[in-house]
Write a structure and sequence with these properties.
Helices cover 49% and strands 16% of the residues. It has 219 residues and is α/β, with parallel strands linked by helices. The chain has a six-stranded mixed sheet with strand order 4-1-5-8-6-7. Helix 2 packs across helix 7 and helix 4 crosses helix 7. It is globular and about 45 Å long.
Length: 219
């Protein structure tokens, strides 16, 4: 009888341990059931902003892949408009517009819950700096996404500019999925250019974008 009671007690504590572990794991999957499309800007013949041997298209892809990995770890299903150094154009005739149209088509046909388009900014003046999120008011949710992610970054990072409405960009005015454009710094600014190359800074940036997305879906 004593052995039987000991076994019951042992099984009781094992069940509590297993339940707590499973419950903790479930809580980690804050984006479970969400599908997110990540769009690394430019690619292939379209380098984006250039600074000496630094090409925007390469950093856009790197940051996008890091973001995708972080979101996947939270339970999200992640898709990319590109996974390598190429654009999506099918013809050289009006190639840039063709590329953007293909990205729009991919995202709109995905039934995704959110898109994030990753870019870097540039200016003729080297004084402009900072991270900024742009949104189109074509969908009302876009402003909320921009606000939540910006606020999250402002709480944990420096040099975060205010989010801004922008309806003039062709791609974002055509998207039927909620989302925002992240300009992760100015290639033309020496300080921004240096920071964005650093792994530690990249990880902090991705961590806060991910946290902002979590807060948007779990207010």
């Amino acid at each position: 009888m004593r052995q039987y009671k000991t076994l019951i007690i042992a099984l009781f504590f094992i069940s509590i341990f297993c339940f707590s572990k499973v419950n903790a794991t479930i809580k980690d999957y804050t984006l479970l059931g969400k599908t997110i499309y990540i769009d690394p800007g430019h690619g292939g013949p379209d380098s984006g902003a250039i600074s000496k041997n630094f090409y925007e298209k390469d950093m856009n892809l790197l940051l996008s892949q890091k973001l995708g990995n972080a979101l996947s770890q939270k339970g999200a299903i992640v898709y990319y408009t590109r996974n390598g150094d190429y654009d999506l154009a099918k013809t050289n005739n009006n190639r840039k517009r063709n590329d953007l149209y293909a990205r729009v088509k991919l995202i709109n046909n995905s039934n995704a819950n959110l898109y994030i388009s990753m870019h870097l900014n540039a200016s003729p003046s080297t004084k402009w700096n900072g991270i900024q999120i742009f949104y189109s008011n074509i969908l009302k949710e876009n402003k909320k996404i921009a606000e939540v992610i910006t606020t999250t970054m402002q709480e944990n990072m420096k040099n975060i500019r205010e989010y801004k409405k922008e309806n003039s960009y062709y791609m974002y005015s055509k998207l039927k999925v909620p989302g925002v454009l992240v300009e992760a710094g100015f290639v033309s600014n020496p300080n921004d250019n240096y920071k964005i190359r650093q792994t530690t800074y990249q990880d902090i940036l991705i961590k806060n974008i991910t946290l902002g997305i979590e807060k948007y879906f779990n207010p």
